[in-house]
Amino acid sequence: MYRTALRNLLAHKxxxxxxxxxxxxxxxxxxxxxxxxxxxxxxxxxxxxxxxxDLSVMVSDPAASASGGFxxxxxxxxxxxxxxxxxxxxxGVAKTRAVVGDFTGVADxxxxxxxxxxxxxSANFVPDASxxxxxxxxxxxxxxxxxxxxxxxxxxAESGGYRVGDTVRIAINGPAVNTQLTGIFTTTDPMxxxxxSLTLLDTASxxxxxxxxGQFSSIEVTAKPGISAQAxxxxxxxxxxxxxxxxxxxxEQLRTEQSTMIARRTHSLEQVLLAFAAISLFVGIFxxxxxxxxxxxxxxxELALLRAIGAARAxxxxxxxxxxxxxxxxxxxxxxxxxxxxxxxLQWGLKSVNRGMPTGSLVVSPGTAVTVxxxxxxxxxxxxxxxxxxxxRIAPVAAMSSGDQPxxxxxxxxxxxxxxxxxxxxxxxxxxxxxxxxxxQQFIRPGAPLxxxxxxxxxxxxxxxxxxxxxxxxxxxxxxxxxxARLNAVRSPRRTAATAGAIAIGLTLVTAMTVIGTSVTDAxxxxxxxxxxxxxxxxxxxxxxxxxxxxxxxxxxxxxxxxSAVTSMNAKVNGNPHTVEGLDADTFDQLVKLSxxxxxxxxxxxxxxxxxxGLATSEGLxxxxxxxxxxxxxxxxxxxxxxxxxxxxxxxxxxxxxxVITAHNPQPFIVRTLVKGTAGATRxxxxxxADATGNNPVIVIRDKQGMADDYSSTVNAAMSLLYVMLxxxxxxxxxxxxxxxxxxxxxxxREIGLLRALxxxxxxxxxxxxxxxxxxxxxxxVVGMALGSYLAWAxxxxxxxxxxxxxxxxxxxxxxxxxxxxxxxxxxAGLWPARQAAGTDILHSINAS
Amino acid sequence: MSTASAILRSVTPGGPSGIAASAREVTxxxxxxxxxxxxxxxxxxxxxxxxxxxxxxxxxxxKSTLMHxxxxxxxxxxxHIRIGDTEITDLNDKQLTQLRRDKIGFIFQAFNLxxxxxxxxxxxxxxxxxxxxxxxxxxDQVVSTVGLADRLxxxxxxxxxxxxxxxxxxxxxxxxxxxxxxDEPTGNLDSRSGAEVLDFLRRSVNELxxxxxxxxxxxxxxxxxxxxxxxxxxxxxxxxxxxxADAVLDRMRRFDGKRTS
Lengths: 849, 261
Description:
Chain A is of the alpha+beta class. Chain A is 56% helix and 16% strand. In chain A, strands 4, 5, 6, 7, 8, 9, 10 and 11 form an 8-stranded mixed beta sheet that branches. A 6-stranded mixed β-barrel of chain A has the order 16-17-22-19-21-20. In chain A, strands 3-13-1-14 form a 4-stranded antiparallel beta sheet. The two termini of chain A are 27 Å apart. Chain B has 9 helices and 10 strands. The longest helix of chain B has 18 residues, at 191-208.
């Protein structure tokens, strides 16, 4: 029996081409994901492998930053010269290095930031007796010695086109300053290797500009020989016990932490990629099942003959499955090879988007190979299982009978019943979720996939009426070929459903994502327009806080009428942690518009708090309620609720006057500065603000559209990645269309020959096949788009807590584009089968029996 | 020339020559060199308008090839073929397709109908392809002649083999082609259904003045024709007018005898 399986495989290899390609693409995606994440993981580990080599213990202060993301307590406790001296005096300490490090951007000659903002860093240059710092060997010039001098890493100097002696603009979170480049150095710092910039300053200047004079961000301690890092840590810990904020870690702990972080990051990346690979494979299942069903239908007589001469049912099933396993294995092997290329491509692609991607040679682990081959074989066998069982049911007598076996309506009846039950169940759960106030997601999460699966099961029964709708248009536009295309498309509902279903899956996901994305963007835009009166918002592009002087500097710019810093701190409200934002009470009503449900926004001027309705409900507060605020420094402030406003995406749930915030937090974190101008958001105003803030390349000035885009850009970035990933599954689905059409053309050879004899020209035959292909594709797309829109509507309803004003917005333009694309893709998929059909030899096909 | 066909010819409208199709010096060869097989060897033949012509011969004699070449389904190696006034040997595929659609009707041995179309749709298919409207009166006459009035909405799968062939005959007649070619049209039918179909073909010649060429190996089927052409080894070796089944059978036996001798 196995020999027959092999022979069949070889005999039908042409017809299996598309199936093999589908498996190959799916497994290549799996292999590519695994190779890529293994490679990134390995490369990251390599680039970090020398980290912490020259230290035993590190003490660090996470809050030591002038601009960093720390919005909590900034107490007087600091790492300073005294701490360093105490540690240096410990018996186990060989040497110490006090480090000042923070964010510092370097501008190129066009005043654009070099490298990504998140990896633009600075550190202090610590010269030894000879004036050199062994950590940063200079290749040109010397290290910085005085204020106004800097050294740059070689890559950054090269991308900025800077030479020793040049003037370089650097910026932290205030005005950019001119410095002189005194030296260019090399470093093995992994962040620099990954595309970041590193600026060296002398220690005093670094402290002055980045922290406070005398303050350090971390102290690196090296143990004397014979002293373990662990023992040293125990010595160091008591010295820095004066603040709970400081961390004391051994090099080993730091390495473990780092590798865990790397592993987690690459692992989550791998998970996402594999999820998409799974979607492609799932789509592939439709194609494989379809192919085997068609092959077995074509081979009915042969299989019946096998049964007639004594093959057992199980043997027929096994031979079909063996055939599947073999195709799976061969295709997966191909997929593995292609996947290695995909992995390399992914690495190259991400590298070009983000210079910070670590690179290295491709890692193809044995685990990857085994997984990919196993997945390929299993998926193919599972897909072929149903057709294989059906093959075993072929009666031996079928060997003698002639003609095609029509699909048994009984099979569809069972299928339809199951499909109806699942669809109703899924739709019901979604409706429950939409209706219910709480636990929306609990219902919608299981409901969505159920509804989708149900609809896919019901596709055969849906195909006939749906495609019939297109009938009159097809006949009017394309005449007889159009009519025949429609009739052929509904001829085998199962086949049409499997082909269209593969397309529907991809389109469901793409549509759902697009509709959700559009709805979110729409809600944020409306929310910005409704709640922001300011013309411009000024903020750091890396999410750091603005320097304290920035709001005042902006206020002095020409054309500015009102300004307010938006400050932020992590505090507790009646014991529960909340982010509290502050604005200037005087300019509040010129920059922000709140829709108050109780009280007045003017209460801010009396030092009262404004809270949103969500917080009012959860804390049981109303206008006039007393409220206990725990400041980051631990002090408590008694406040009165002055008003309640409707939930607002742009502002935190609790708002205070900046004067209230600075009372206990003299240097608050400034998230952004809101600006209103005399003539609106003009270019002149933007330029005036840029000049006023010292043309810092890291500071961005956004108008209302920009503010809305800033919120939705995360969504959009995720969307474009999703489109690429889902594009893969659509590609697999297109192979399915090619496959089905090619098989159908093969099966209908005699019919096509007859049509040619009766006077349908080649153009007509081609048109007939292409139209059928387009009809099936569009049917799949329409089902997918309808299902996707429905799922998006359900998902949007679960977002109403985060985005109170969200409503489902159907992006008509995009949806039309999807539809037209589906039709075009269908026609393209039909090109080759159509050519095959048009090339049909009339005599040959008529005489074939 | 038989009296019957002489009478028919006299009532036949159309071309001055009264020749519906002709082959001149037609040679058809397959392959090259040693594997070269000559299927037709310098065949000359005229198909008369309004006549029922049968082509007979042992298998491999070239009878099907002759029909395919006459019908524009196959190309000739050398020689000329005319359908009506049209020289078809120089036509390209598109022109040939149009010629088949507009001037020729076909009845094949099996698989004559598109399974997705019902009987009447199959009958009007060539006209639908051409984008022409069927002559309703003529269509009604053809349908009633072949006795399918109550089966028009049935799909091929719901019709018997005989009924399917009658639909094929109706289709061939419906567009009033210059000539109808039948390739063993009764080959797959039981004798009663076969007789029915042949009866229709005969009547369409008598009553509708159709021109029909039929390839067959069945002497009984050939006896319905006005004229029988006998092919052997790619040449027309004999012809018979107003044949009877027995006469044809006798003539065919002579081929067998020649072969075995």
